[in-house]
Amino acid sequence: MRVKPHERIPGVFWILDGKKLLATKNLVPGHRSYDEVVKKYKGEEYRVWSPKRSKLAAAIMNGVRTFPFKRGKKVLYLGIASGTTASHISDILGRDGIIYGVEVAHRVIRELLPVAEARKNIIPVMESARRPENYSWLVEEVDVVYEDVAQPDQARILINNMDLFLRKGGHGVIAVKASSIDVTLPPKKVYAMVEREVVSTGRYRLVERVNLAPYDPKHAMIVFKKVS
Ligand code: SAM
Predict the structure, then answer these.
(1) How far apart are the CA of 197 and the centre of ligand 1, in A?
(2) Cβ of 150 below 6 Å from ligand 1
């Protein structure tokens, strides 16, 4: 087995072990955040990041160019659930970074609590992402707003949160599930609708769109940049 850094994305690694697996270096060695596979190499622990379990991993596998999750950055995560994807972002951000994780479902946030307690750089926020004003006392200005809520109004939710919390020059990254918005339209039309809604505010520029098939068919990851 061999581990090598991802060619473009700091903090992300390839495990070469017969197959090529995506991974992050465990921020809390000895602690597993879910039932992920852990591999040891040269005294370090690497957590396999499956694109079948995480849309952000699927976006990396499919060649996303813009990856604003970097060491020391601040992230507002909408729809953090039990922290599967967030735990890998937490590995990448390291101790100096922070994730504010908004989640509305009590059951899943209960599973997030031990993950947040072990990692220290995740702050759970039990609220609806539709009501950003309710957590504005807690969340500071961030470098990235990441959204994965699978709701019909997900573009509006992203805009409202970016308006309140995203710094100028920062990025909004959204996992769009086409069928959550309109089952009758072809996914491409739904992605274009989301892009138009966000860009028409005049405050955000479309950076890129990456299809998540075959890992998540009819899903896309769309990246925006705050320009004013
Ligand atoms: N992002 C997670 C991951 O990759 O580990 C999976 C998220 S799952 C697809 C969507 C999550 O969004 C669910 O946990 C759901 O409860 C949450 N959600 C749905 N509507 C929400 C809202 N209005 N505010 C906050 N969370 C919401």
Answers:
(1) 21
(2) yes
